[in-house]
Design goal:
The complex is a heterodimer of chains A (107) and B (435). Chain A has 107 residues and is α/β, with parallel strands linked by helices. Chain A has helices spanning 2-13, 25-34, 52-61, 92-106, and strands spanning 40-43, 45-46, 49-50, 65-69, 85-87. Helix content of chain A is 44%, strand content 15%. In chain A, helix 2 packs parallel to helix 3. The longest helix of chain A has 15 residues, at 92-106. Chain B is an alpha+beta fold. Chain B contains eight helices and 15 strands. Chain B has helices spanning 28-61, 65-80, 125-128, 192-260, 264-287, 295-303, 329-348, 394-406; strands at residues 5-8, 17-20, 84-93, 96-105, 117-118, 134-136, 163-170, 176-184, 293-294, 317-320, 326-327, 358-366, 373-381, 410-416, 419-427. In chain B, strands 5-4-3-8-7-6 form a six-stranded antiparallel beta sheet. A five-stranded mixed beta sheet of chain B has the order 10-12-13-15-14, covered by helices on one side. In chain B, a hairpin with a 2-residue loop joins strand 14 (410-416) and strand 15 (419-427). The longest helix of chain B has 69 residues, at 192-260. The chains are: A alpha/beta (107), B alpha+beta (435). The A-B interface holds A 1-6, 9, 21-24, 27, 45, 47-48, 69-71, 74-75, 87-90 and B 237, 240-245, 247-253, 255-256, 259, 328, 330, 333-334, 337, 397-398, 401-403, 405-408, 430, 434.
Chain lengths: 107, 435
């Protein structure tokens, strides 16, 4: 909760419009299916559930995303190893840099 | 007249030379017969020596238990000239001890389909008990034979056994590991000399079986250590994850406290108090290995700094609800923080800011099955008249958006003039501890 509020604040500071946050996988998948997203920041573990089904969905939709995790990329599947990773805790500047990378992907 | 005979024998296949000093009186036929006997005896000894060597080599080489025991039984059959041999191992079957078939030589396994177990009959008891070898030229003539129910002798379909040799396999500590049993359909096949040889084989088999078991035990221990190291690595990963998440939470708390503070002192007080609130919940979770924490304990821990009693309640608080409801770590941290924000607000502006104020905190379960949810109510009374704040602070944001979002519930904050109240409706499935 505290971490999602932090990311929300950082994103708003950086001039983003925040959709969400979703605290459950089904909620997140519904958001991804119903709302137009420029990019997404995914916590690897959402209330005990791995986030990977959402990662697959976003990849299929062509929506760029980054992972926020305490595990580093050790907690990621092989398929996700190339995705940008924000290692918690991170600074607003780190988030800005990652968002820049994601925007290039949308290009 | 004196006769002198010398026989030069060669096992390398060279001709046997016979020199006789007085050829006139030698019975050549008798000599030939003796020679044939000597050759046969030599061949038999060679076979035995080979069998013994193989047994010794198999035991020395170690390897799988089944393989070692099979070599011992095969070697035993060769050594004794038995028609069939088997190794039975001691087995505890309920109250009774029995010998179960382990490996077989000279007969198909199907020959034992109907009697894979040997019971402690009069014939088998000495072998079972490790008392010594039982050798019989004709087991059917043994006085102990045929007295035990239900078969009174060999069961129908049993391999025909007349010559019998039962060799106990006993460990150095005296434990009977099993028995080597050999049989032949003709009587008088096993000599006393064989009995002694087989006693040695039985002792070697015991050493072999113990070695294999020791080896297995050692391997198992290595595997257990590997698993323990793996578990430790996973625990460390999990701990690292938890620490990083907590650091990010602290970062969030610092940022929120900074945004909402009027001055440096205000920041410091708010930040420290929130840090303490988070730490309280962590203490409760740590006490239960991070499996969960009781809702009541979380309430009591957050109210204690504001005059709540050790077990909750106290003059300024009424605490009601199920004392046994346990929350998962995520819900525990979120609710601990929520109650802290409500208490802090009450202390600054609400019921806890005056000596006469009172807070009632209650929890109860409502709804059925999938709709089952926890209702938590915080109701302030007796404090100063309340008006809706102009600026939305961290507390109200945390409650109405943070908590509601995190626990997929509804949170309603009311600024009634008689006192602030907060009602939370949280689906139980997102709260419950998995343990």
């Amino acid at each position: 909760m505290m971490v999602s509020m932090l990311i929300e604040d950082m994103l708003e500071d950086l001039g983003c419009k925040v959709i969400g946050p979703a605290s459950r996988l089904d909620e997140a998948i519904e958001l991804a299916n119903t709302v137009e997203l420029d990019c997404a920041v995914l916590d690897v573990n959402l209330g005990g559930q791995p986030i990977f089904p959402l990662a697959d969905l976003l990849r299929a939709k062509g929506a760029p995303f980054a992972f926020a995790t305490g595990y580093g990329d050790a907690g990621l599947r092989e398929a996700d190893k190339g995705s940008p990773v924000l290692q918690k805790p991170f600074r607003e500047g780190d988030l800005a840099r990652i968002l820049g990378e994601l925007r290039l992907k949308v290009g | 007249m004196q006769k002198r005979l010398s026989v030069v024998n060669s096992s390398q296949g060279a001709p046997i030379q016979v020199t006789v000093s007085d050829t006139s009186t030698v019975d050549l036929k008798m000599l030939e017969a003796r020679l044939a006997d000597a050759r046969a005896a030599l061949a038999e000894e060679t076979v035995r020596a080979d069998a013994l060597n193989r047994i010794a080599a198999a035991i020395g080489a170690g390897g799988a238990l089944e393989q070692v025991v099979q070599t011992v039984v095969d070697g035993g059959v060769e050594l004794t000239g038995a028609a069939f041999g088997a190794f039975f191992y001691t087995d505890q079957i309920g109250e009774d001890e029995a010998l179960s078939l382990y490996t077989l030589s000279g007969a198909p396994r199907s020959a034992f389909d109907h009697f894979p177990m040997v019971r402690k009959t009069a014939i088998f008891a000495p072998t079972f008990n490790g008392e010594g070898i039982l050798r019989s030229d004709d087991i059917t003539q043994d006085p102990r034979y045929g007295h035990s129910a239900p078969y009174h002798g060999m069961p129908h379909g049993h391999l025909p056994v007349r010559s019998y040799l039962g060799v106990p396999v006993v460990s150095r500590s005296g434990k009977v590991l099993g028995a080597l049993l050999f049989g032949h359909p003709e009587p008088g096949r096993f000599s006393e000399r064989l009995e002694h040889l087989m006693a040695g084989v039985g002792a070697q088999a015991a050493v072999a079986i113990e070695n294999v078991r020791l080896h297995q035990a050692a391997r198992q221990e290595v595997e257990e250590r590997r698993l323990a190291a793996e578990r430790q690595r996973m625990l460390l990963n999990e701990l690292n994850h938890r620490v990083k998440n907590t650091l990010a939470s602290v970062q969030s708390i610092a940022r929120q406290s900074l945004i909402n503070a009027d001055n440096v002192e205000g920041f410091r007080d708010a930040f420290e108090a929130r840090l303490m609130a988070l730490s309280q919940t962590h203490n409760l979770l740590t006490a239960e290995n991070w499996q969960g924490a009781s809702l009541h304990d979380i309430f009591a821990a957050e109210l204690r700094p504001h005059g709540g009693g050790r077990q909750g309640g106290g003059p300024r608080f009424t605490l009601e609800g199920d004392r046994n409801l346990r929350l998962n770590p995520k819900a525990a941290v979120a609710l601990g923080m929520a109650i802290h924000e409500l208490a802090t607000n009450a202390l600054k502006y609400g019921a806890l800011s005056t000596p006469s104020g009172h807070v009632a905190l209650s929890s109860r379960l409502e709804g059925q099955e999938a709709d089952r949810h926890l209702v938590i109510e915080w109701v302030e009374s007796g404090g100063p008249s309340v008006s809706k704040p102009v600026r939305r602070g961290f507390g109200s944001r945390l409650l109405e958006r943070g908590l509601a979002g995190e626990l997929a519930g509804r949170v309603q904050l009311d600024y009634d003039p008689s006192g602030v109240s907060c009602r939370m409706e949280l689906p139980l499935q997102d709260l419950e501890s998995s343990e």
